[in-house]
Amino acid sequence: MIKKWGSVLLLSSALVLSACGNESEETTGTAGTDIKDEPIKVGVLASLTGALESYGKQTQRGFELGLDYATDGTMEVAGRKIEVVFEDTETKPEVAVQKATKLLEEDGVDFLVGSSSSGDTLAVLPLAEEYEKIMIVEPAVADSITGSEFNKYLFRTSRNSSQDAEAGAAAIAGEGVKIATFAPDYSFGWDGVAAFKTAAEDLGADIVLEEFADPAATDFTSNLQKVIEADPDYLFVVWAGANSPWNQIADMKLQDKGIKISTGAPDIPALSIMEPLVGMEGFSVYYHTLPDNEVNDWLVEEHKARYDDEVPDLFTPGGMTAAISIVEALKKSEGSADAEELIGIMEGMSFETPKGTMTFRPEDHQALQSMYSIKLEEQEGVPYPVPVLIEELSPEDTEPPILNNQ
């Protein structure tokens, strides 16, 4: 009997110690300190040099502004400070993987954000799953990110190619309209054209040519000659980067040959060389005068105040939105960065952004969001064609198909 009761007492003591140990792990950090004393760490991957440098720096500015906005300037949430580490991917997938690994292993980040390139982002996605960390995809747009390459740890605040396609097709497609497409020869271009083709054909249009060019090319003569030979009613262009084709489209006088040009209105530096396209109808992801809401008003005013009267550009609101989404999720989790808990919170989560209300669709974690049907017009005092609103396309208007087969 003594041995029996001794065993029971030992077992009871072990259970008490185990319970105390579990409580300690939940309320303290690895060094025994209260978890509230440990910062939330966010690693942001962006193209801070190279062809997409302007995109990366827009994301960086937007992310910093977004944290300021979402935390009321405190840079903390639920009593925990927020620390951010920015890393340059150089728009090279292998570099993106190296930098993401460094952020996860050396910096110990709780979240990943990025990247400017779809190629970089696709290379990094498996790491989010391997390390079980939430990754906010911004501003990469390839459909495959929330499609064939989807994993449960990623949430995308940027729009995807199918959302672009729905907006782009709405602007020009119709029964019997002949359209040629022109895009860079990598995942961004492939997905963009595939999605646009589906949307345009659903509206009765005929895609007469799909032309792809080297994404690093600066001479598009042979590509554009094929477009001229196809004799479409419209040329729909999907492009990203500084080496845009607008000057050559003008030089080869496609519009004089009866081929109308349509595309997504790009960032301000690219708009500055689109003078030949004044009058073009297309779509916009963002231009600072298009959204009408308090968050965008704050962004425009604060951006001008901090950056020598510059207005936010194409991807600045996306960086801000990514930051807002993280802070809103952490508010709901009371500061917990546990990925499984956050997934449950973020699926279906709605939050306010410079583009209005966004919602993470539970099925594929794509943020449903507004887009804008626009016309490029000259505007007094502005040295580039300005996207002028024709119609705001609601999140329901541009909701993309679910492509992840979940």
TrEMBL record:
SUPFAM superfamilies: Periplasmic binding protein-like I (SSF53822). InterPro entries: BCAA_transport (IPR051010), Leu-bd (IPR028081), Peripla_BP_I (IPR028082). Residues 1-19 form the signal peptide. It comes from the Bacteria. The keyword Signal applies. It holds the Pfam family Peripla_BP_6. Keywords: Signal. Residues 39-377 form the Leucine-binding protein domain. Belongs to the leucine-binding protein family. This is Leucine-, isoleucine-, valine-, threonine-, and alanine-binding protein. It comes from Jeotgalibacillus campisalis.
